[in-house]
């Protein structure tokens, strides 16, 4: 039992053979009536464990979810993708803003008569069939799925990645599981709960690198495309959700909104945990445009090479033993350190299956810490 009577317990291994070394559950938390002392416990657990599960939060208000999420970065207040999302963005159809709390979005699947003051919601869970170049055959769609898109929550243009994202489960479809197939030539697969959110550790991703690759990533940056979710809106993804095929489908500058060079984001490949100092390999493969080695000055500008390089570095860490697929229960509130883990939505729903969630995050007040930055924030 921890201080103040709260217990921080590492998450159980989700399946035999799992090698996950992150994630914790904290019992006894009342988010609706959060004290500074209780928040300090949550904060310490999150930076240590990367993913924190708070159970039994039924009735949690959007306001309380927002206030908890913002505590990790009090100077932040703008939703991670800004006040509005361009209709040409691949994200536009996935998000519905809570009217009285614009930092909180409603996500999920199915028809919802009323929620958060909104009527007749028709939510659509992103299906890999709309995004992957080689989707699961239609006749297998009920039972077999893919990781949709491994990502960091971020606009990756103008705004910096949120420090923390919170996900709240209001309604969860029950009783069905799916086989997640990688379909990347590896023969790897994973048994997952329907509609899981899957997490992988950027720290594990860094630790799995060779010494030579570690030295190279520590001195390298990724430059991300301007208006990335419009730029790549015609592209198709790999079947394991880890990046895009290079088929020349990216939009050119004349097809994008005006570009402000000052808003283009360049981040180190390696981000430092602000509390522990641990190093994570944190690259968002889909919007990546260039690689810059700061030591040699070499710029990798060929998009196919950029994608293949990032894929080679990241692929070992998404193998099944390193994936945590959260088994959602109504009332779960999950917080994750967006500067230390990547995640992916998963699954395909049938008629009548309803998934109703709230997501909250805010563009960070500062960029992620690089490997040589001070760990104090």
UniProtKB/TrEMBL annotation:
Gene Ontology molecular functions: dioxygenase activity; metal ion binding
Name of the molecule in the record: Alpha-ketoglutarate dependent xanthine dioxygenase
Top-level taxonomic group: Eukaryota
Domain TauD/TfdA-like: 18-359
Organism of derivation: Ophiostoma piceae (strain UAMH 11346) (Sap stain fungus)
Alphabetical UniProt keywords: Dioxygenase, Iron, Metal-binding, Oxidoreductase
Cofactor: Fe(2+)
Taxonomic classification: Eukaryota, Fungi, Dikarya, Ascomycota, Pezizomycotina
Family to which this protein belongs: Belongs to the TfdA dioxygenase family.
